[in-house]
Amino acid sequence: MKRSEINEIVRQGQSFIESFGFVLPPFAHWSVDEWAARTESCREIFRAGLGWDITDYGLGDYGKTGLFLFTVRNGRQEDLSAGKGMLYAEKIMISKKDQLAPMHYHEAKAEDIINRGGGDLAVKLYHSNDDGELDRERKVTVYTDGVERTFAPGDILRLKPGESVTLLPRVYHAFWGEKDDVLVGEVSTVNDDHVDNYFLNPIGRFPEIEEDELKHRLLVGDYEALQ
Ligand SMILES: [Fe+2]
User: Fold this and answer.
1) Helix, strand and coil in the chain, % to nearest 5
2) Tell me, what's the pLDDT at 212?
3) Distance from residue 218's CA to the centre of ligand 1 (Å)
4) Which listed site, 52, 69, 122, 184, has its alpha carbon 20 to 30 Å from 30?
5) How far apart are the CA of 177 and the centre of ligand 1, in A?
6) pLDDT tens across 197-210, in order?
7) Range of the domain at 154
8) What's the CA gap between 190 and 192, in Å, rounded?
């Protein structure tokens, strides 16, 4: 992706998020110079991978296949191993109308996907089989706001604003906005996007960036150069 495209997506995404009254934390607004001056005090942000995160899944057509994410908080893998402590994470995301977040599952992470406003959020569901592929036979049972619902493999669950679904590990899901762009919340187990995303079709999670413009905001993938 070009940096100029990323800058524009961040600007538009921020105003979309704020239009729903969701107020982002301070580090959402830091300039590149402010980050550079705060490197020492921001180790926890770097460790947790908090902040702006935009992906086109390496496919080069963000409007078609992509996701806008802002990680608000994220716990520790060591705590997860210990079974106590900071075991949770929270993201705010945007699924644009007809923009696909492609089919994937998580081995460790359970996640609640929440429609926080805008259009409808369509979520296509499958179980994974023992080989990590789509199970085209097994029905999928999920909780939507505490209500048990069972779907045929490949069925599409549609979440209206305010509705959510709990997706347990190894449940395949792909999602996109319908009728309008959707503000999507995620409340989950500790999140490690480097190792816990199993895509049905091998694709990238973090974009290659062509630096054609100065950075408006740093993405999570930009932190490495600071440390
Ligand atoms: Fe997911």
Assistant:
1) 20, 40, 40
2) 96
3) 23
4) 184
5) 15
6) 888 888 877 778 99
7) 3-226
8) 7
Q: How far is the CA of 164 from the centre of ligand 1 (A)?
A: 13
The pLDDT > 90 percentage for the chain reads 90
CA of 2: how far to CAs of 17, 54, 61, 70, 99, in Å?
Answer: 22, 12, 11, 19, 18
pLDDT at 147: 98
Cβ partners under 8 Å of residue 68, min gap 6: 9, 13, 54, 93, 94, 95, 96
Query: What is the distance in A from the centroid of ligand 1 to the CA of 159?
Result: 15
CATH of the domain at 214: 2.60.120.10
Per-residue pLDDT, averaged over 206-215, amounts to: 90
Distance (Å) from CA 105 to ligand 1 centroid:
6
| 41 CA from centroid of ligand 1 (Å) | 30
Q: What is the pLDDT of residues 146-168, one digit of tens each?
A: 999 999 999 999 999 999 999 99
Q: How far is the CA of 138 from the centre of ligand 1 (A)?
A: 19
Give the per-residue pLDDT at 177: 98
Residue 183 above 80 pLDDT?
yes
- CA 173 to centroid of ligand 1, rounded, Å: 7
Ligand 1 centre distance from Cα of residue 46 (Å): 21
Residue 52, both tokens: 């702006």
**Tally of domains within the chain:** 1
Biggest distance spanned by C-alpha atoms of the chain: 55
